[in-house]
Design goal:
The protein is of the alpha/beta class. It has helices at residues 14-21, 25-34, 51-60, 83-87, 90-101, 123-133, 153-162, 176-213; strands at residues 2-3, 11-13, 40-41, 47-50, 64-65, 73-80, 109-114, 137-142, 167-169. A 4-stranded parallel sheet has the order 7-6-8-9, with helices on both faces. The protein has a 3-stranded antiparallel sheet with strand order 2-4-3. Strands 1-5 form a two-stranded parallel ribbon.
């Protein structure tokens, strides 16, 4: 028997399927040809199977034990950098896009906030992390990786994966320009922050130097 919690990746390559099912490459080709297992193709033409399709197949043949906590929910996380973007509807647009384009959402919880992607102390991000650590999240959905954070994304991804929670990125290509503009704003904020700290250090140094000369 297989446990659903053992399958944490969003998709599986052919070699993964061969290992999981204990079958040969020729058998995989037959499964694909007769539709026994649903395969998708990457841009390079390689076969892959989405997690949901693999679990469905295992369930259909009676070898899947669904041990996933029924209280676990999918989480939609949305973020913009400024209130101006929120007023324009960019924040709600992210949520609407994911709700309309992800077909198998399970009891979705929406977390949305206004804040810089450079700020890792955002309240809703912290809430999301707590939910993951408490075992209350099935999957996390975002329109872009940098909705979660500008830097250190892979640390979040590794932590979530350790707890069996994949981050699903469903890109909204129509909003790509807005994301690029937001990145510029964040970089300007970062530059201003460093400049302010540097100015403060220099002022303090000059002040101490003046006091010493007295």
């Amino acid at each position: 028997m297989y446990k659903s919690s053992d399958f944490t990746k969003p998709l599986y390559k052919t070699k993964d399927i061969m290992r999981i099912l204990g079958v040969s490459y020729a058998t995989i080709k037959n499964y694909d040809k007769n539709g026994k297992l649903k395969f998708n193709r990457t841009e390079s033409g390689r076969r892959v199977v989405f997690r949901e399709d693999l679990l469905k197949y295992l369930d259909d043949i009676g070898v899947l034990y669904n041990d996933m906590d029924l209280e676990k929910r999918d989480v939609i996380y949305a973020r913009v950098s400024s209130n101006e973007q929120k007023t324009k509807g960019d924040l709600d647009r992210q949520v609407t896009f994911l709700l309309e384009n992800v077909e198998d959402l399970y009891k979705p919880m929406v977390l949305k906030e206004v804040g810089s992607g450079l700020n890792d102390k955002r309240s809703k991000l912290q809430e999301l992390i707590r939910l993951v650590l408490d075992g209350k999240v099935h999957r996390v959905f975002v329109t872009y990786k940098d909705r979660l954070t500008r830097f250190g994304y892979h640390y979040l991804e590794a932590t979530f994966s350790y707890h069996g929670v994949p981050i699903m990125v469903v890109k909204d290509k129509d909003r790509e320009k807005s994301v690029e503009e937001e990145l510029v704003e964040d970089m300007m904020s970062l530059t201003a922050s460093f400049s302010g700290k540097l100015y403060g250090l220099r002022s303090g140094k000059n002040r101490r130097k003046g006091e010493t000369q007295r």
